Amino acid sequence: MAKLTFKTDLCKGCGLCVGACPKNLLVIAKDKINKKGYHPAEMTDAEKCIACAFCATMCPDCIITIEK
Amino acid sequence: MTVFDKPKSLTDAPLHYCPGCTHGIIHRLVAEAIDELGIEGRTIGIAPVGCSVMAYNYFTVDMVQAAHGRAPAVATGVKRADPSKIVFTYQGDGDLASIGTCETVHAAARGENITIIFVNNAIYGMTGGQMAPTSLPGQITQTSPYGRDVATQGYPVKVCEMLSQLDGAGYLERVAVNNVKNIKNAKKAILKAFKNQVEGKGFSLIEVVSTCPTNWGLTPEKALEWLNDNMLPYYPLGVYKDKFAEEAAK
């Protein structure tokens, strides 16, 4: 199983990772606010993640680390 | 096993760019190229004026911040003073294609052994969205509220096409960062541009077609679509010149 780690406090909620995920597993968490005041991206179902790293490739702020 | 992690040549400083700005992706690609070639200790970057003026905060290499548009001239000086260093400039379109056209053209004409990363987002980002030399015909900006009129404001500057006419220019490629496939291609191009310099071949320039969600007035995702639908037809991707491959083939 892949393990995604978000540096949530650096997320700007731009949503580029959400659009890049081929499995549609990422969402912008509208009910959360990070230190910067943005709604951060988060993983909905880590079990289904295939560790393709598309989200991390698109992330402009380099906040996603993926381990397998 | 780590599949993806931040490259070592990027610092931990949070990027100051707007949400969804693709500068961050291009920074990462440059840092990955530096990591892969193992040249972190002997690389010197030249930051421009523009949104990426504070690029010196983000790379773990020595950086110089040049006057507006003069990064290729400063890079020339640094490289000639110590040819063992790997020198790259990181410039936007308002810097490289406008006030810095002269320095860019002549650095290419001299065939300086430097690497230029040219970020083209068709607008002046930092100053608030004015028309740039690379703005598309009909594009609405702060200073062209009715759309860029080519009758009075002329046509966009196509840097790769322009420089490909110069014998001194070695490797010119235009890439984009609007989807994963294009980002992978961009990474290859940037790596090759650095590699050319490490091997002492000569002038390399990579034009990266990029977005500016804030000043285009679009969400980050819509900006990627706008790039794909409007910029790519006007700025076709591809290798515009590879003198080194041609020479090797002879």
Account of the 3D structure:
The complex is a heterodimer of chains A (68) and B (250). Chain A has one domain (3-67): 2-Layer Sandwich (Alpha-Beta Plaits), CATH 3.30.70. Chain A is 15% helix and 21% strand. Chain A has two helices and four strands. In chain A, the strands form two sheets. In chain A, strands 1-4 form a two-stranded antiparallel ribbon. Chain A is globular and about 30 Å long. In chain A, 40% of the residues are buried. The mean pLDDT of chain A is 94. Chain B has 250 residues and is α/β, with parallel strands linked by helices. In chain B, α1 packs across α7 and α3 crosses α4. Chain B is globular, with a radius of gyration of 17 Å. Chain B has a single domain (23-249), classed as Thiamin diphosphate (ThDP)-binding fold, Pyr/PP domains (Rossmann fold). The relative contact order of chain B is 0.15. Chain B has a seven-stranded mixed sheet, sandwiched between helices. Classes of the chains: A alpha+beta (68), B alpha/beta (250).
Radius of gyration of chain B: 17 Å
The CATH H-level homologous superfamily of chain B: Thiamin diphosphate (ThDP)-binding fold, Pyr/PP domains
Our measurement of the CA-to-CA distance between the termini of chain B, rounded to an integer number of angstroms, reads 43 Å
**Helical residue percent band of chain A:** 10-25%
Number of structural domains of chain B: 1
Q: What is the percentage of strand-forming residues of chain A?
A: 15-25%
What sort of overall outline of chain A do the alpha carbons produce when their principal axes are compared?
Answer: globular
In whole angstroms, the N-to-C terminal distance of chain A is: 6 Å
CATH architecture of chain B: 3-Layer(aba) Sandwich
* Total E-strand runs of chain B: 8
User: Class by helix and strand content of chain A?
Assistant: alpha+beta
Strand count, sense and closure of the main sheet of chain B? 7 strands, mixed
Give unreliable regions of chain A as ranges.
Answer: none
Largest sheet of chain A, order of strands side by side?
A: 1-4
Secondary-structure element string of chain A: EHEEHE
How many domain modules of chain A? Answer: 1
Q: Radius of gyration of chain A, rounded?
A: 11 Å
Q: Mind describing the biggest β-sheet of chain A?
A: 2 strands, antiparallel
